Amino acid sequence: MRETVIIGGVRTPIGRRNGKLSHVRPDELLAKTLAGLMEKTKVDPKVVEDVIAGCVSQVGEQAPDIARTAALIAGFPIHVPGVTIDRQCGSSQQAVHFASQAIASGDMDVVIACGVESMSRVPMFSNMQDATYSPVLTEKYELINQGLSAERIAEIWEMSREELDTFALESHQKALKAREAGIFKKEILSIKVRAEGINEWVNDDEGPRENTSIEKLGQLKTVFQKDGVITAGNSSQISDGAAAILLMSREKAEELGLKPRFRIVARSVVGSDPTLMLTGPIPATKKVLEKAGLTLDDMNLYEVNEAFASVPLVWQKELNADPAKLNIHGGAISLGHPLGASGARVMVTLMNALEQTGGRYGLQAICEGFGMANATIIERLDE
């Protein structure tokens, strides 16, 4: 099997629902991201053999194979194809996996993995179009809202409201600290928006809240269960955003005179309990570590998507993980969670964090709807 390396990655700022990025169509937002990736890596789009995009709500402006339309909008040559996939919240992490697999097998040499979601313009669940789940499926499994799954996890693992709110507050604090230190500047692509006849450049994430506190978080009402612990404050934010990563075979990178930043060490994807739904990162992590021949102690940093505070907390508890290595620049609770873009966004942030801290190995895991999870291990290559 050939070695898959990462040449570079970019992400847009993450916009709040109905915030600044809501003025940009998602296909155009992804196009800007693809063009920005090519400009940053100094690679000619003509060498790209496929664009694989994650997108969950594939309807409306996100419907007609947004990977292909975005590549065309970005000015890629017409011979560059595109395909759009849906593995729920891990869609663009799965895009990285598919790209890596195509390269490792020798089928392709240069692939872009990316993702996009404009949850302002294409609301979550709008692709269902009022359809209901098959009664054959619901007879087999209890399918509930992810928020209720998060509540059940908190109950089973005895997590208090204060514990969840404290995690959420720390997510905001870490994101604000990173933003103030300019850490995100290396990964964020500025996006020009036009609203009410005025042009504006969006340079920063809109999600982190400077004025939040444990007292304010504690005053929020629960959302999914009256006597529960899950609130809007300890859940991921509804967001808009896009991210893209350029992957190659090491041989192709050398041929083009490019220096890889990372290599893909191992990948995993698992199915898990479709009712609890959000515990998949635990077995996915165990599986990817086994495939890599590494331990969690070998990981310098890990990113576990903050769909709800109970998700990274249960992962941390079950694997006895070091909290100081977890989501060191914040996560979806503070930064936001544009569904189809999150897998690639998290990886771009993990790459940046490893380079900033000098770490070697990074692990990423994301829980997914209907009980699934992806996990990826990347290795920073020496300068």
Automatic annotation (TrEMBL):
Question: This chain belongs to which protein, by name?
Answer: Acetyl-CoA acetyltransferase family protein
* Organism of origin: Evansella vedderi
Xref: Pfam families: Thiolase_C, Thiolase_N
Could you list this entry's UniProt keywords, alphabetically sorted.
Answer: Acyltransferase, Transferase
Give the signal peptide, or none.
Answer: none
Q: Does the keyword Transferase apply?
A: yes
- Family classification: Belongs to the thiolase-like superfamily. Thiolase family.
- Asked if the keyword NAD belongs to this entry, the reply reads no
Q: Which domain of life is it from?
A: Bacteria
Q: Which residues form the Thiolase C-terminal domain?
A: 259-380
